[in-house]
Amino acid sequence: MKFRQYQIPDKVMITGSVGVTHNWWEAWLSNPWFCWGFGSYLALNVGYYTTALLLEYALAHGQERSMISYGVFSSKSHRRRSSLLVHKEPSFAEQLSGSLWTTAGPAAISNAMLAAFLMPYVIPGPYPTLPNLSWLELVCQILAFLIANDFLLYWGHRIQHESDYLWQFHAEHHRISTPRPLTTANIHPIDGTLQGGLPLILACAWFKPHPLIFYGLIVVRYGENVLNHSGLDTWWTRALKGSWFVPFVRAGVNHHDRHHKMSNHAKGATNYGESLVIWDWLFGTLAKTDLRYREDDRLVNITNSLKR
Fold first, then answer.
1. Fewer C-beta neighbours within 10 Å, C or N terminus of the chain?
2. What sign results for the dihedral spanned by CA atoms 57, 62, 67, 71?
């Protein structure tokens, strides 16, 4: 898929703020450290914190009643306060600082530097100021990218449960059985690279999107990741995720929420995928609705009922 080079006709001079913006954008695209490095770093934080703050606002203004409950483990406020872990969960402040460290710290910077170094070889420039794609081509490229990214994420996630060595890193995230939007990224840097950075870079290398499209895909991917950790299962979260329209293909918020509630262990976990149900179905890791979980030597039914 080729991009058409953006050219200014002869004897036409762009002046004023439009010209300044055009020149600034061309300079941005010509510098890989800005184009692929800082651009992806900025898109990550915009997607993550914009979604997280909006969801935290929704929780603080009446949407808490729509949080997923687990039968006898539900509290009066319908928050999922019960923990299926034997160790103490980190405090909200600890989770928030961990998320900030992940999204803005060494791991995010390293992934951005990796993208800045690799992408110019994978997708050689120069890049047009805007992608030259029809609407159909744009939709197909976005869908293909997200499908490939979720496939790579599935295995980047699953391998950390199956490997005793990698589990020690992923276990940091599973200390939280009841995640919330602003603490989603409370993960180890290696975990963040295997589930976030590498899948995005590899999918980008495969489908070669324009940098502007790549930024949008990062915003969508990390925004969805925050939504998956919100615990909110409402008509509007199902509509945003698409699970309302294709429930047997698109994973809802409850898909990953069940993973946190029932798979806080290394091997034999379920629901590894985040965007799609199909990978868990194909590889035999899709959780059933009547799963049971042992806590304090008692078997208790885990349900996905909503209490309003």
1. C
2. positive
Residue 31 sits at the vertex; the CA angle it makes with 26 and 32, to the nearest 5 degrees, is: 125
Neighbours of 308 (CB within 10 A): 7
pLDDT of the residue at 163: 92
- Among 302, 308, 306, smallest CA distance to 261 is for 302
Please determine, for residue 308, whether its predicted confidence score (pLDDT) is greater than 50. no
Backbone angles phi, psi at 81, to 5 degrees: -85, -15
Quick one: DSSP state of residue 197?
I
- Biggest alpha carbon–alpha carbon distance for the chain: 81
Query: Around Cβ 297, how many Cβ atoms within 10 Å?
Result: 5
pTM strictly above 0.85: no
Is the pLDDT score of 273 beyond 60?
yes
Report CA-CA distances (Å) from 68 to 109, 186, 291: 34, 21, 16
> Domain coordinates of the chain in residue numbers?
16-301
Three-state SS string across 127-190, please?
CCCCCCCCHHHHHHHHHHHHHHHHHHHHHHHHHHHHCHHHHHHHCCHHHCCCCCHHHCCCCCHH
Q: Are 224 and 250 in contact (CB under 8 A)?
A: no
SS3 292: strand
Report CA-CA distances (Å) from 63 to 55, 57, 59, 67.
9, 9, 5, 7
Mean pLDDT score of the chain? 77
Report pLDDT for 28: 92
CA dist., res. 142 & res. 279, Å (int): 18
pLDDT in the model for residue 175: 78
Which residue's entry shows tokens 């946190």?
Answer: 260
Contact 273, 159 (CB under 8 A): no
Other CB atoms within 10 A of residue 248 CB: 8
